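S., here's the first fold you wanted:
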Amino acid sequence: MIAFETGLWEAAAVQQNFDNSTATEAMKQSLYSVWKTEELEQLFTYMKEQKEKGKPLTLAGFDMNLFYKSSFRSYAKEWLQKVNPEVKSEFDTAVSELIELDRYYNKNKTYFKNDIRLYEDAAIQLCWPKYDGLSSTAYQRPNGHNWCICV
């Protein structure tokens, strides 16, 4: 497993679609700009080679981005269209509503910080079992909640 401080959703989407993109595309779609370097492009090339050899490395992100502002949205829509077009339509509607709420709160500089914290904590609880036992280090926020897992 290779984990970056980058969007959880973006890394998962690229991991699922790794076969359908070049190493450069995968890197650009999954990583924050600070990580987009020649050296890491070589790493993504290596990851593609290993996958083709049947020894894949799993790409993971550990930052909670707002998924509707990221490349994950297009992956989710494409996948939902194949699985259930009706749900895809509902997803589009929900995402549009989230974007409107985000614009409103950004414009008015008002945030429900407690709601955001609850969302983050719920996401961590959802993902934690997947990484538990694999992690060698789990860093904690001052409030004691885990937020970064290094494998």
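And the second, which I think is the more interesting of the pair:
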Amino acid sequence: MREIEYGRFSDSSGTYSVASSAAPNTIRVYAEGPGDRSMLCTISGITGTPTASWGVTWLHCSAEWYDAMQRRALDTYRGATCDGRAVER
């Protein structure tokens, strides 16, 4: 399966990409850096009750940060699937 990138968003910490997952009803979120990409989280249940599983690098963050990242990732995914912005990689 080829990965589909649904889009990107940024905050003061960096840039994040939202991509497809091999698992159904699931997306992956990556932290993007110069020549580097690390898994931020996997969000399952995107059409029902979304639940994020966070990468170990990100376990020190606040609950507010987790909520904001999940919300922005889901907004990016939903925006791409509604208006056709998704790009196959």
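Why I say that: The longest strand covers residues 36-44. The chain has one domain: 4-88.

Talk tomorrow,
H.
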